[in-house]
Amino acid sequence: MKFFSRAQKTGFVIPDLSKTAAFYEGTNCKIMNGKALSAQFISQAQTLRNGKKIPCLAVILTGDNPASHVYVKNKIKIFNEAGFESQSFYLSSADTSEEKIISIIHKLNNDKNVDGILVQLPLPKNVNVEKILNEILPEKDVDGFLAQSIGSLATGEFTHAIACTPFGVLAMLYSYGVEISGKNAVVVGRSNIVGKPMSLLLLSTDATVTIAHSKTKQLKEICQNADILIAAIGKPEFIDKSYIKKNAVVVDVGIHRKENGKLCGDVHTNVTEVAQALSPVPGGVGPMTIAMLMLNTALAAWAKN
Ligand SMILES: Nc1nc(=O)c2c([nH]1)NC[C@@H]1CN(c3ccc(C(=O)N[C@@H](CCC(=O)O)C(=O)O)cc3)C=[N+]21
């Protein structure tokens, strides 16, 4: 469990939820409850922070994407619950330029009280994401998006932050006792934020990893071979039971708002008829992403290399 060693040294543990898992009604499919697991990490943070520097996250939010505003609000709420500090910097669309964002980043890089810097994505079209992110000091990259962070994941050194969503997925698989070593893991999606770091993490835990994406041929057949399927394709309820091997573990990383206002992911709930476990949307990976952001900020404050 090398991916968790930096957190472990700081006192965090992955709680064992394998014995207490609930099942989807009328099925043999376990619910991997990211909300419950996230709450356990928050309560660990509340205890561990005693006598230490209060971790502080600075969030830069640009534009008026309503989903971004909701996510940032959720992040700040969780940080408050953990007794951590957060600061937010808001730039309206009209006010957003590369220079403005970079000048805020430079100020935060030099601020000793600020442990982590998060630039909420997506950014407006007129700014270059890589250029902006590269201004963040690697030790303050709590998103795990920088080349140094992905690099430490790729080499297996784990000296930097692990991208929050994949980190949360792995913590959840461990918490629910899912065996990873030697299993066929299929990651559908190849983004820098989810698909790529997710694949590297599964590889580091000895899974046989296949990365599938929009150009992949025979996607269904490849998914049908997955013992562990990570769905991050960005198409609502696209993965249904016909893609799932009997007793596979399925993690839904998609998030979409339906016309009726309800949230759904990339996975159709009928997978519960064949899968042994599912991480649902909402209540799965989303809350875990925020929990791992909090953990990465704690590590930035307390586990200096
Ligand atoms: N620099 C950066 N870092 C991020 O980590 C980042 C980002 N930009 N941009 C957007 C995505 C998306 N993301 C989510 C976090 C929590 C939920 C979450 O809490 N979801 C709840 C539901 C929330 C709701 O009600 O809308 C759930 O799934 O149960 C969802 C999505 C972080 N992201």
Automatic annotation (TrEMBL):
GO molecular function: methenyltetrahydrofolate cyclohydrolase activity; methylenetetrahydrofolate dehydrogenase (NADP+) activity
Keywords: Amino-acid biosynthesis, Histidine biosynthesis, Hydrolase, Methionine biosynthesis, Multifunctional enzyme, NADP, One-carbon metabolism, Oxidoreductase, Purine biosynthesis
Domain Tetrahydrofolate dehydrogenase/cyclohydrolase NAD(P)-binding: from-to ranges: 163-301
Gene3D superfamilies xrefs: Leucine Dehydrogenase, chain A, domain 1 (3.40.50.10860), NAD(P)-binding Rossmann-like Domain (3.40.50.720)
Database matches in CDD domains: NAD_bind_m-THF_DH_Cyclohyd (cd01080)
Biological process annotations from GO: L-histidine biosynthetic process; methionine biosynthetic process; purine nucleotide biosynthetic process; tetrahydrofolate interconversion
Superkingdom of origin: Bacteria
Residues annotated as signal peptide: none
Residues annotated as domain Tetrahydrofolate dehydrogenase/cyclohydrolase catalytic: 34-143
A GO CC term assigned to this protein in UniProt: cytosol
Function as written in the Swiss-Prot or TrEMBL entry: Catalyzes the oxidation of 5,10-methylenetetrahydrofolate to 5,10-methenyltetrahydrofolate and then the hydrolysis of 5,10-methenyltetrahydrofolate to 10-formyltetrahydrofolate.
Similarity annotation: Belongs to the tetrahydrofolate dehydrogenase/cyclohydrolase family.
HAMAP family on file: THF_DHG_CYH
Complexes and interactors: Homodimer.
UniProt protein name: Bifunctional protein FolD
Organism whose genome encodes this protein: Fluviispira sanaruensis
